[in-house]
């Protein structure tokens, strides 16, 4: 294998992930079992869906801090539309996802139309959407969903968690879209040099709006899956989700400055984070220790990316 491929961030992270899985397997006999690994796949699906599209967002040079709030708002609206408005649950979930997608569109519109920096715009909508979720819910939860709905978040298809199939399909579609289509090339070009992309005739604003709209859709879909998995809705659902998603994306090698990144890198970063959380928990390590270790790994990933960039330069 050529040296330049061995020194790719994703390749280095893949070796780290394999080493980590081996070490954690020695720490606990329960870690490397089929049941545990499939359960971890179930637990990381919501963050995974959001992180995949967050990769697109960060490659454009942006960021979306509102995804956790969109997830919470979608979860609340699913219950409210079904229980309070009497809509069929499929229609209620579909309408809630549509609202979440529109929230993503609003983010993109504010950023492109008014020139508000993505960090500021999505920080504002983080508070806005979370406030809407809390106001609509009035601190009440919705329970008692029909049994068929739980198949989405708690069921299995061919022995694999239902939502893990959704994550796999989502990842494949996103990978192809990013690597082999015109919009994918536009996303990379915008992140590398937005002004040059504009003068090259690329639809910069439309592409960015599409990316943020897709981010809203991913968060909304994750919200419905989350409700199905935990069997209830609460306004605080998704709190901190944006940080987990961004950590997976950056750990996976996507440049926070834009112009570079991959879906496969994000997925490897996601696996590393989930493996650490689960493996260290089984080994008796407290959550604070896990958080410290993940933080150190993130710093290390940033340093490695910086060194590789200097080497390429």
UniProtKB/TrEMBL annotation:
Its main location: membrane. Keywords: Cell inner membrane, Cell membrane, Membrane, Transmembrane, Transmembrane helix, Transport. It is found in: Cell membrane. Signal peptide: none annotated. The keyword Lipid biosynthesis does not apply. InterPro entries: ABC_transp_permease. The chain crosses the membrane at residues 12-29, 49-82, 89-111, 162-180, 187-203, 209-227, 248-271, 291-308. It is a multi-pass membrane protein. The complex is composed of two ATP-binding proteins (LsrA), two transmembrane proteins (LsrC and LsrD) and a solute-binding protein (LsrB). Part of the ABC transporter complex LsrABCD involved in autoinducer 2 (AI-2) import. Probably responsible for the translocation of the substrate across the membrane. This is Autoinducer 2 import system permease protein LsrD. It comes from Rhizobium lemnae. The lineage of its organism: Bacteria, Pseudomonadati, Pseudomonadota, Alphaproteobacteria, Hyphomicrobiales.
